[in-house]
Design a protein that fits this description.
The structure is a single chain. With 625 residues, the chain is an alpha/beta fold. It folds into four domains: 97 residues, Gyrase A, domain 2 (2-Layer Sandwich), CATH 3.30.1360; 110 residues, no CATH class; 126 residues, Rossmann fold, CATH 3.40.50; 192 residues, Isoleucyl-tRNA Synthetase, Domain 1. The protein is built from 23 helices and 14 strands. The strands form four sheets. Strands 7-6-5-11-12 form a five-stranded parallel β-sheet, sandwiched between helices. It has a four-stranded antiparallel β-sheet with strand order 1-2-4-3. The two termini are 58 Å apart.
Length: 625
């Protein structure tokens, strides 16, 4: 059985396709065709595992043949050997192979890398996936409106934004949304403290950013409650019960009930204080470089959630108890009974999420809903998904909780009530200042204008922060270390940024030598007959091209695994291998014009991949450093 496309001649159009798809996809298709020819069997190309070849073996790509053994009815070694010969016949760019048990290691020849380089460097969309047709709504941040954003929110924001960008770049339609938890007892505590001690001050009159201003009253509430509870503690009452008896706590409870009842004065204070918080949040979002397509408010979704719960009661899905409360039996799903409405008819946190999910489906008709929320809410989202599945909602199966670990500090756990959080605004300011100190210490910014210096400090400071947080698997806890994050050596954002700036310096020198006026990022293309000088390629050039060729596959893997860490660590590898490449071969003083042009093309493509990879993490790149 023959394949009319078996030869897969390396013309430019096909090379461009390979550059955008990635070599792994091409190998999968070739393997599937070869299996059909060799064994008369059909196999799904996507099911054939293609891996990066281990450092102890020769080659760049490894085909795992174990899944094909059953079809071939031969030993793994025999299947790998036969498949290796078939692939070499089908794709002449494969220079050789070696079979180790059930692993087929493939070594691509310099001619292949020449074709890859010629195609990829001319493709402005290199690495971007084709449209999948899948629509995704991704929620991240989700703060309460009673305190400023802190270090924990920072990890949430950076993860959520980056996952959304990865999914979008991989080819999905992504809508980034936020939910404000803008009602409830925590918000009323800040309101009660402001009423008791605010003296009609405003953020402007106090000279304090809006969210910090309101957050100070959340801390003040705790201080007032502690002071007022002393008399009750002296009577032998336990701490929790004593706080409930304090005047400030009773006032917060009164405000909560008044808000539910639509009291005009309480609602006016609530809107005013929340407005201050939103202004402050938006300033932080801009500083962090994160954005949302739409904001949802708990105060606008909880009523719809209550209607959904009552609908479930009418349909016999949820149970209303004698005291008036509504509960759901989730034992069949391996979960507990869940309270959905209290006996007084007031809603629960889960009620709001039911209403929000319904509103989002009305707005977007999404295929999947992603919630970027800390790991302490794992159970909550299992319950949410189970409830919506019981209700038969079409979007229920697509609910996915993107859980992440907490951020720890050397000084211990953050506590908002005690005011011991690391505010996101202060964190950004401190990182920019640290970047400034480190850069000035190195003394490499002579000749830069003051505004260029400030831009550089911000780019490095934010890059260090984002990279340090995003390079770690989202599910793991982080011990945040600002000093380590800003280092110019090792797996850090500034190291990768420095590599980009180094390449831009090389390209500027090349332009100057060639007498060409143009932007430093101008594309350097290899000659049209790129394969003609394949014999002169240095192993360092092949290694760098092999690393760059993994960019499309890394995009898809990082998006599929919802892991910016995979993209961050790939960016580091690209930077590290480039520095090895630059140390081993001469670029500007290459032995001939062809080698110079080729190496400039490799450098240019490296810079482009670094810029795209860091861009997917929300990190900018400096032209000079």
């Amino acid at each position: 059985m023959s394949d009319p496309n078996a030869s897969l001649l390396p013309d430019l159009a096909l090379s461009l396709q390979r550059a955008s798809l990635g070599v792994e996809d091409t190998l999968q298709r070739l393997c599937a065709a070869a299996v059909t020819d060799l064994y008369g069997a059909s196999v799904d190309a996507a099911s054939i595992p293609i891996q990066r070849t281990g450092k102890e073996f020769e080659g760049q790509y490894t085909v795992v043949v174990f899944p094909l053994v059953r079809l071939a009815k031969q030993k793994p070694e025999a299947v790998a050997e036969a498949l290796g010969h078939a692939l070499m016949n089908r794709w002449p760019e494969i220079a050789g192979f070696n079979a180790v048990k059930g692993f087929l290691n493939l070594e691509m020849g310099a001619g292949h890398w020449a074709q890859f380089l010629a195609a990829a460097v001319r493709d402005p969309g290199y690495g971007k996936g084709s449209p999948s047709g899948e629509k995704i709504v991704l929620e991240y941040c989700g703060p309460n409106t009673n305190k400023p954003l802190h270090l924990g929110h920072t990890r949430n924001m950076l993860l959520g934004w980056s996952v959304a960008e990865l999914l979008d770049f991989a080819g999905h339609e992504v809508h980034k949304v936020n939910i404000y938890n803008d009602r409830g007892i925590a918000i009323c505590k800040s309101m009660a403290a402001y009423e008791a001690s605010g003296e009609n001050a405003t953020p402007d009159s106090a000279g304090v950013k809006g969210d910090h201003f309101v957050g100070s009253f959340y801390v003040a509430y705790n201080r007032l409650a502690t002071e007022q509870a002393k008399a009750f503690l002296a009577e032998g009452m336990d701490k929790r019960e004593a706080e409930k008896q304090t005047p400030i706590h009773r006032r917060a409870q009164e405000m909560l009930l008044a808000w539910e009842a639509g009291n005009a004065d309480v609602r006016a204070l609530w809107q005013k204080m929340n407005g201050w918080v939103y202004e402050g949040f938006n300033e932080t979002f801009r500083a962090m470089g994160v954005d949302f397509e739409k904001d949802y408010l708990e105060s606008e979704t909880y009523l719809e959630g209550k209607e959904i719960v009552l609908e479930g009661v009418k349909r016999g899905i949820f149970q209303q108890h004698e005291d008036g409360s509504v509960r759901a039996d989730l034992s069949a799903e391996g979960l507990d009974e869940k309270l959905l409405l209290r006996s007084d008819g007031s809603s629960m946190y889960i009620t709001q999420d039911l209403g929000t999910a319904e509103q989002r489906y009305t707005d977007y008709a999404m295929d999947r809903s992603y919630y970027v929320v800390g790991s302490e809410q794992d159970y909550h989202f299992k319950v949410l998904k189970a409830l919506l599945q019981q209700l038969g909602r079409p979007y229920a199966d697509g609910i996915t909780h993107l859980s992440y670990g907490m951020v720890d500090l050397p000084t211990g756990k953050m506590k908002s009530r005690e005011g011991t959080t690391v505010d996101a605004d202060n964190l950004v300011a401190d990182m920019i200042q640290t970047a400034r100190s480190k850069t000035e210490e190195l003394g490499k910014i002579e000749g830069l204008e003051q505004n260029e210096k400030q831009t550089l400090f911000r780019t490095l400071g934010l890059g260090a922060l984002k990279y340090f947080i995003l390079r770690v698997d989202p599910r793991k806890r982080i011990l945040f270390n600002p000093e380590e994050s800003i280092e110019l050596v090792g797996n850090t954002g500034p190291f990768v940024q420095y590599t980009y700036a180094r390449i831009q310096s090389i390209l500027r020198k090349a332009l100057k030598e060639d007498g060409i006026a143009g932007a430093p990022g101008a594309v350097f293309s290899p000659p049209a007959n790129a394969s003609a000088d394949a014999a002169s390629w240095d192993p360092a050039e092949i290694q760098q091209c092999a690393t760059l060729a993994r960019f499309p596959a890394t995009v898809q893997e990082a998006a599929s695994n919802h892991s910016p860490a995979e993209m961050a660590n790939y960016a580091y590898e690209v930077a590290k291998t480039f520095n090895q490449f630059y140390d081993q071969v001469s670029v500007l003083k290459a032995e001939n014009d062809q080698a110079r042009t080729r190496r400039l093309a490799i450098s240019s493509l490296t810079a482009s991949v670094i810029q795209k990879a860091l861009g997917l993490l929300g990190i900018g790149v400096p032209e000079r450093m």
